[in-house]
Amino acid sequence: MRRPAIWGLSALLTLSGCATIVTPPAAAPAPVHPPAPTDAPAGPRPAPAPLSRTDSSGLRPFTDVVRGATPSEGYFTLWRKDERVWLEVPEAQFDKPFLLSINVHSSVGERGLYASQMGNSWVAAFRRIGNQMQLVARNVGFRGDGNVAIERALAQGFSDSLLGSTPVVSAEHPERKSVLVDASFLLGDISGYSSQIEAAFRLPYSFDRNNSFFERSWASDGMTTLNVRMHFSTPRMPGGGATPPTTTPDPRSFFVGFVYNFMRLPEEPMRPRRADPRLGHFTDAYTDLSTDLKSNPRVHHVNRWRLEKKDPAAALSEPKAPIVFWLDKNIPTRYRAAVEAGVLEWNKAFERIGFLNAIVVRQQPDNADWDTLDSRHASIRWYVGADAGYARGPHHSDPRTGEILDADISMADVFSRSARRFFIEEKALTRERPAETHATHPHSHDRHEDCSYAFESAAEMDFVLDTLEARGELSPDSPEAEAFVQSVIKDTIMHEVGHTLGLKHNFKASTAMKRELLSDHQYTRSNGVSGSVMDYNAFNLALKGEQQGAYNNSTLGPYDYWAIEYAYKPVVADQESAELGRIAARSTEPALVYADDYDAGGFGGFEGIDPLANRFDLGDDPLAYAEKRLKLSQELWQRTQSGVPQYEDDPLRQRRLLMTGFRQVNRSAELASKYIGGMVQLRDLPGTTKRRTYTPVDPAKQRQALQLLARGIFSADSFRFRPEFLSSLPPDYLDRESVGPVSVPNAVLNVQSAALDRLLSAGVATRLLDLPNYLGAAAKQAISLQEVYRTLQEAVWSETRQNTEIDRVRRNLQREHLKRVVGLLTRGAAGLPADALSLMRFNAVQLQEQLRQAAGNRNLSVETQAHLQDSLAMLSEALRASMSRG
Asked: Which end of the chain is more exposed for a tag (fewer CB within 10 A), N or C?
């Protein structure tokens, strides 16, 4: 899927899954703020006022600088006069760390640049150098933990980073021992957003300070917040590869709104909790160099909110401070109940470990003048964009302990305006999931930034609604369809809230559900369709004539309860290690299987080797699911072709249904191809079980998957469409994003190419050649690399043995196969074993002879003859070519 250039949250403290910030006390309907801020007008900043009186340092007295300014007293007191803003920094705060975060309030609305997004965060500090104040990001990735000599070495060996710098503009206040700094340095690109803009549009947009300005500001005892509006511009639109914005009135200029948060770190750090790889939590990680006795100096602390019982002796107690999620006033009213239900569903998991009402939901009033992106409010916000289709559940945490301090879920509007209009075009066939951009940091490699669950759920929802509508079982405007959409929103919110509670994806949870139970409506309605809401769960659509279970998840799964227990269960300090070990040891239970993004593949360059770890599958047999989805796609196509469009119908509906089916076929091909050379992986710690970490997939299952690809994906018979249907698919004549007729061969080739890449990859070849090492005496039954290469070649080039015509869909597939074979024969591939290359040449020689015989058949069409002769020439040239082998 295409990955738009999302503003990558590469900062140390930002996590997703996509306080104790617990927002105002439960009794307060809304936070109390300092005097209401005034909006600052746009325009150039005036020159600084001339110095009047000065002290020995050459600086004006504090009171002279702020004469006529309005204060907002708080963590860092703000002084504001017209468009000028000063930060008051006490001497006691010099070099004292705090949490700095920069969130995106408003943006461009396309290509990853969206509103309502959590941004970068750092542990930062103010450092005074003469009459200059530096804003410094502290390096907390390496620690000496009390070893004084090592801590000196670390300070010398690993640098901090400068985020910004500004003049000190006043002498020290005689009583408060504080100085004023000009806040205009915040009207700069501290967040690095300009790099994301350039990556999105391939244009050198410059930050324009003169037309950037402060909007609003707030301050309280633990936080200071400034909203700023930044202007980016370019003088002209160059030619070449530039792709300017399409959503702005003038592509040369746009504004982006940022929310700066200066937040006090907890005075008493929360007791950290060590992570365990047998289940998935986001972590704050650092390198502990205090001793050289550790073989692995990396330490991972679970990210979790600080929850403490009011009554520690009670079996069930409310927390001292609950986790409060504010529903932003920009959430459409019709969806607020579903959003709230998705949040509160997690209270079931907390009740099981002794917390009553651990999570509270509050609605931001429509007349509120504060922003839910400030660091006091964990929030859920709606956002729109021309190409936006994902939800995110990031959070900011205290790296000393892993304590989550703030979280802001952003939810795309794909459900309200419907994915039906979002996935119309043929580009949906080649588009990848919207950015599941994974922010990386040298000290924390498990920080997954964006979550594409909303995007894919919208596509899944579309497929199910389209199929049910084609069957005549559901009307798109019916109450049942509305209830369906509401359930999808609840499911998506449950997933994103899980991220903000510290839980990572679990892409093996769907296999915890027995396939036969998916058709049990009562069971699935009560228990959901998967072992976790943290999986990317497909919709449970039955084949026509089968029993229909619940369509999607409506509640938490066993894994979710387990993961919350590990992170949040109150445990006495001296018993924590043993108790956490006991909890994690349950990983052998079938309902608690776990696999993360790396295991599923498509992340960090890892292709994924476990066919049970997938995005969007259902049941304990993903291969059976893949075959079922292929059949459902073919059913949708058949019903669409036999239907008669009505005058009032959407003219693009049939075109969209064709594309919707191809998305599902693409997923079926991906699932099936993972079985070839697949290895089932289990997460156990040494000495805890006798299970194997890696177990080769059953050879019978691998052969079954290979045949599904050969007969279902590589066969032209799977993609037959009536000419009168294809010729009746108009483009959008008013918005010409799709031009001309649909190209079915191109759509088919996109599906087949991905499967070819997988089967001919170096990873699959290596694992198949290594299989005998894992099987011992059973090695004779193993599927061999030669069997895979031979089966693939026979399926792709079957016409050359039968001397029959080759249609365009098949010619395209054969060219793609030949292109890869020729490339491997002449250039090799990184990591491809020598035995794989030998087998490739062996099979290529046989194909060369088949092509030579088939090319001599003058009874074939001129297109087929030309194709065969061209293929023969290309392959013969490759076999004659010399290649330097390393």
From this structure: C
**DSSP-derived secondary structure for 245-301:** -SSSSSTTEEEEEEEEEEEPPPSSPPPP-B--TTS-B-EEEEEE-S-S--S--EEEE
Looking at residue 617, its amino acid is D
Neighbouring C-alpha atoms within 13 Å toward the C-beta of 98: 23
| Bridge partners, 299 (sequence order) | 286
- pLDDT, one tens digit per residue, over 96-154 is 999 999 999 999 999 999 999 999 999 999 999 999 999 999 999 999 988 999 999 99
As to burial, measured by CB atoms within 10 angstroms (0-12 exposed, 13-18 middle, 19+ buried), residue 586 is middle
250: its two tokens: 């003038």
Q: Which residues pair with 391 in a beta bridge?
A: 411, 451
Q: In this structure, what DSSP letter does residue 319 have?
A: B
Residue with tokens 């933990």: 145
Supply the DSSP symbol for 336. Answer: H
Q: List where CATH 1.20.58 sits in the chain.
A: 760-880
Q: What does the pLDDT look like over 713-745, one tens digit per residue? A: 999 999 999 999 999 998 888 876 666 888 999
Q: What is the mean pLDDT of residues 304-321?
A: 97
Angle of the 453-471 helix axis to the 622-642 helix axis, nearest 10? 50
3-state secondary structure of 39: coil
Residue 368 contacts by C-beta under 8 Å, 6 or more apart in sequence?
Answer: 30, 329
**What pLDDT, on the 0 to 100 scale, is given for residue 767?**
96
Buried b (16+ CB within 10 A) or exposed e, 514-530: eeeebebeebbeebbbb
What ranges in 643-693 are assigned the alpha helix state H? Answer: 653-673
* Residue 698: DSSP 8-state: P
How large is the angle between the packed helices 453-471 and 653-673, nearest 10 degrees?
A: 120
Task: List helix spans (H) across 741-828.
Answer: 744-759, 762-775, 785-796, 798-802, 808-827
In 10 A of CB 840, how many CB atoms?
A: 21
Rounded Cα–Cα distance for residues 46 and 44 (Å): 6
Question: CA 37, CA 255: separation in Å to the nearest integer?
Answer: 20
Q: How many other CB atoms sit within 10 Å of the CB of residue 103?
A: 29
Cα separation, 514 vs 510, in Å, equals 9
Q: What is the DSSP string of 444-508?
A: BTT----B-HHHHHHHHHHHHHHHHHHHTS--TTSHHHHHHHHHHHHHHHHHHHHHHTTB---TT
End-to-end CA distance of the chain: 33
Residue 213: enclosing H or E segment and its boundaries? strand 206-220
pLDDT band at 426 (very low <50, low <70, confident <90, very high): very low
Alpha carbons 594 and 682: distance in angstroms, whole number: 8
Using DSSP, state whether 880 is helix, strand or coil.
Answer: helix
pLDDT at position 882 = 73
Q: What is the largest CA-CA distance in the chain?
A: 102
Q: Are strands 378-383 and 403-412 parallel, antiparallel or unpaired?
A: parallel
**What is the spatial distance between Cα 498 and Cα 500, in angstroms, rounded to a whole number?**
5
Q: Which residues contact 126 (CB under 8 A, 6 or more apart)?
A: 89, 93, 94, 95, 96, 133, 134, 135, 136, 181
**Three-state SS for 309?**
strand
List the one residue out of 513, 563, 565, 514 whose CA is nearest residue 534. 563
CA distance 496 to 449: 12
> Going by DSSP bridges, is the β-strand pair 323-327/359-363 parallel, antiparallel, or unpaired?
parallel
Q: What pLDDT is attached to residue 327? A: 98
CA distance 9 to 297: 25
One-letter identity of residue 95: D
| pLDDT for position 55 | 57
CATH code reported for the domain at 760-880: 1.20.58
Of the given ranges (116-130, 440-454, 629-643), which has the lowest mean pLDDT?
Answer: 440-454
Q: Check pLDDT > 70 for residue 591.
A: yes
SS3 865: helix
